[in-house]
Amino acid sequence: MPSTLISAVGHYVPENVVTNNDLVQKMDTTDEWIVQRTGIKERRFFTEGKDTVSLMGANAARMAIERAGINVSDIEMIVFATLSPDYNFPGSGVLLQRELDLPGIPCIDVRAQCSGFIYGLSIADQYIKTGAYKTILLVGAEIQSNVMEISDRGRGMAVIFGDGAGAAVLQATNEEGRGVLSTHLHADGAYAEKLMTEHPGSRRKERITPAMIEDGSMLPYMDGPFVFKNAVVRFPEVINEALTHNNLTKEDIDLLIPHQANLRISQAVQERFGLSDDKVFNNIQKYGNTTAASIPLALSEAWEQGRVKQGNLVCLAAFGAGFTWASALVRW
What we know:
Helix content: 25-40%
Number of helices: 11
Strand order of the largest sheet: 1-7-6-4-5
Largest sheet: 5 strands, mixed
Order of helices and strands: EEHHEHEHEHEHEEEHEHEHHHEE
């Protein structure tokens, strides 16, 4: 049975840098307040007319494809993770397919929010292991800045999230001991309303009303303390699950790349496992929380910086809305 090799990664971020001091001009907050609670110093916001979720995904994909040394035509399937697709329907997977000129290949759209990239990795891994496909393009991309209200009312969410994309070329390999060792997926819908955007949705006869706009129920909502408390439990659980499944220990991890939700969460997980700074990669300081894009974006930057090398054991872990949480162990 073949294994799934992450043969290359790529990323794209919009050129528009928005600093904490930029936000201070539009809401009652300070750079110190934002950094203390999230670790974020700046984030990227998309440029209308230039950046879309599918186009950003395509830019990240082209980088990954070039690094993998393959042709675009070698891609046999697209798995696209996002909570912010270009359209309500169809999904962004087919738009990426059109942009890359890959007619006829299957496209799977994944809605697992912050865990979307690992969920997508698990899906692609099954297709490769069964021999159905040999080369799959996995993308995570988000535009979230235009659903946030840059105001005092929207402050709790607006300071956290940013836009960006990341991609990975996944290929079948028969090289023993390399590739995706295992993936572990979980969800608990009991807490769906703790992190959500309620409207527009299909539950109401009218999907959009002036009242929804006025009362702010079309804005993203998060019970921050509740999410934090659950995240710092689920992250270690799902990382330990992956290690136990593979008869490995925390000492075997060469690099942990957590979903970039909040630097304080990442630091709590790092402390829990007793990992040194050189064994954990964070870039939320520059990009904020880019949801499904955060892990591939971080993985791509870590690779660029020489933090990911052949033979390294890389642990990916995520927690987000749903609630969903997931982990993967990869032998690079």
